[in-house]
Amino acid sequence: MKLWGGRFTKSTDSFTDHFHSSISFDSRMYKQDILGSCAHADMLGKQGIISKDDAELIHKTLLEILADIEAGKVTFDEQAEDIHMNIETILIQRIGDVGKRLHTGRSRNDQVALDIRMYLKSEITDIKLLVKKLIAELNQIAKDNMDVIMPGYTHLQNAQPVTLAHHVLAYAEMFKRDYDRLSDTYKRTNVMPLGSGALATTTYPLDRQAVCDALGFDSITLNSMDGVSDRDFVIELLSTLSILMMHLSRFCEEIVLWSNQQFRFIELDDAYSTGSSIMPQKKNPDMAELIRGKTGRVYGHLMAMLTTMKGLPLAYNKDMQEDKEGVFDAVDTLKMCLPVFTNMVKTMTVNRDNMYKAAKGGFMNATDAADWLVKHGVPFRDAHAIIGHLVLYCIEHNKSLDELTLDEYKAASEVFDETIFDAISLETCVNSRKVEGGPSKDYIQKLIKLNDEYLASLK
User: Fold this and answer.
1) Beta-strand runs (E) in 254-369
2) Is 280 strand, coil or helix?
3) Of 186, 265, 323, 429, which cross-links 258 as Cys (Cβ 3.0–4.6 Å)?
4) Maximum separation of any 2 CA atoms in the chain, in Å
């Protein structure tokens, strides 16, 4: 008979058991379930709700079960439905009636809320470490490529010259915000729900704060109905992970483009590329493409969880069992993608000459030419029109702005003199942009230092 079967006169259908069971996926929370039960048993003993001897035996036996699980000596039973009932069933098998006292003053509703919070706290910590490593790697790439000039794009059209350092540090800023979002999500996950009971606490004199302190939570939930029925911390984590995957996906898209033969800005290491089954010349950026593809998978889990929760009345509903598979898979996906991506960019070869050649095309110094006119007294809109006409002239005569003669410049405006040529060199275009946030080497060096300080400050 099931541990909750006293009110029932017949067993559930075998297929219903399979449909209802969650042990196939929530078994990964075995450690959190056992540690939470240990803290609960200790509190019951200290409060005199059960005897201290019983509490000590329960605690001791739970740790033995934990050791046996980690040694591969325990097989979970689908008939026991979930990890919580499996652990309790094994406990009762080992110590009999004493084990039946463990569930005093709690419900599976607050127990599962505790377990998933504990589990996700640990996973968030792991993911933060992976993000930190990625930021550090991008900062190192910037240090190594401060002088590597490349095209900057808008609308994927040539826009203005930047440096590779400037480009990768844009992503470092995105991942820094992702790290901060993970930290914020951790704060709202780090609230202890045990003691909420099924929805209305209990008549036993529980010491919730003692359990909170023992398990390392910051605080306890302040409303028992909220404590068992809230899953917005799961939704928040899925949202945070979705944004993080979006940033990875954008960078992967650029990796795919940069490694294309029409760009040849980078070459991926063989360890992060694959070949073709039919075309022997191919070197495919499959890792970048897979990360890009897995982004949709994480988005799907976010939308699924939002949809699951949108119509649920207070308090607990069985629908909420659907909270685990999606967030578990999203966490697993990030923990696979982040180290692959970090090592992929760490080992790629930068083709500096190709980046520089690409930056020389497409009139990327046109804005600087217009700015030169403005600095020599020409209103910006007039300067814009003059350079626009010069660009058209260059297109018609198959030239670039830096290939024009001074006479050709003067034909467009008498204001031009020989200093225009230095003003439109790629190096000047990049390093004259000393405004904070820009691509100049002076500023990039400051930003790299700020990133080093940021990384050193992370716990």
Assistant:
1) 266-267, 349-350
2) coil
3) 265
4) 101
382: tokens are 């007039």
Residues with Cβ within 8 Å of 309's Cβ and at least 6 positions away in sequence, in order, are 231, 232, 235, 319, 320
β-sheet bridge partners, residue 266: 350
Structure token pair of residue 110:
């607050």
Active site residues: 155, 276
Instruction: Enter the pTM of the model.
Output: 0.92
How would residue 16 be classed by pLDDT, with cut points 50, 70 and 90? low
Tell me what pLDDT residue 4 has. Answer: 46
Q: What is the mean pLDDT of the chain?
A: 95
Nearest of 181, 164, 127 to residue 339 by alpha carbon? 127
Residues 6+ apart with CB under 8 A from 185: 124, 233, 236, 237, 240
Question: Rg of the chain's alpha carbons, rounded to an integer?
Answer: 31
Among 398, 406, 399, residue whose Cα is nearest residue 422: 406
- Supply the DSSP string of 191-212, one letter for each residue: EE-TT-TTTT--SS---HHHHH
DSSP label at 222? S
Tell me the three state secondary structure of residue 52.
helix
SS3 of the chain: helix, strand, coil, percent, to 5: 65, 5, 30
Q: What percent of the chain has pLDDT over 90?
A: 91
Question: Which pair of tokens denotes residue 5?
Answer: 């079967």
The 8-class DSSP code of residue 82 comes to S
In the block, residue with structure tokens 């302040």: 222
Question: Poorest-confidence range of 47-56, 59-68, 397-406?
Answer: 397-406
Is residue 144 within 8 Å of 245, Cβ to Cβ?
no
